[in-house]
Amino acid sequence: MRNLDVCRKIYLRARSSEQSDASVSLAALRKVLHFTFAAAGVSRDPAHLWYPSWFLQGDSHSPEDFDWLVDYLDYIYSSDHDAAYDILLLLVVMKVRCSPAKQHQFIESLIACMDTNMPHHLRHVALRAAHSAREQYSSINAIDDTKLRDMILTEFSPAILTAVCPQRSSMMILTASSILTTT
Q1: How far apart are CA 99 and CA 97, in angstroms?
Q2: 15, burial (CB in 10 Å: exposed 0-12, middle 13-18, buried 19+)
Q3: Collapsing DSSP states into helix, strand and coil, what is residue 58?
Q4: Measured distance CA(119)–CA(70) in Å, rounded
Q5: Which of the residues 114, 140, 145, 146 could staple to 159 if both were Cys, CB 3.0 to 4.6 A apart?
């Protein structure tokens, strides 16, 4: 995606100290992301998330080239759900793997985006991003970082359940908490 470098520059400018009003740059970044999807023929419709026909091939990037997107996702997911959706969609479309330095932060953001308080479309794209990263995290014994491994086992797996079955997982949590309080 050719506009990716433009997006990165806008984000870095918005986060730099020389920019007094970051909201203007971040609004421009959202527009560039939308244009990037339109130019590449990528649908932003959540119903199309599971169709692999629109995965983008070609440009080769290292995982470190996307660290800024993981930072942006962490910065924006709680206040701008549409921008968080776009970031996760871009990561899915580009088949991005996180750099080792950003894996912990990325998983934390995915967990937060799959929360029942988040809009359905954001939970859905976060689940799709988790699906895309499944090979990276499926062999739990191969993960050297014990904090990351523990987070995947204790927080990431339940977050996936919450994204798939929000009502059922809420009932399970209530049942578990009532069992704990009665003992």
Answers
A1: 7
A2: middle
A3: coil
A4: 20
A5: 114
Q: How far apart are CA 125 and CA 38, in angstroms?
A: 18
Q: Which amino acid is located at 101 in the chain?
A: A
- What does the pLDDT look like over 103-144, one tens digit per residue? 889 999 999 999 989 999 999 999 999 888 877 776 666 677
Owner of token pair 């797996």: 157
Longest CA–CA separation in the chain, Å: 59
As a whole number of angstroms, the distance between CA 137 and CA 25 comes to 34
Tell me the HSE value of 113 on the side-chain side, using a 13 A CA sphere.
Answer: 32
**Amino acid, res. 36:** T
Tens of pLDDT, residues 35-45: 777 777 777 88
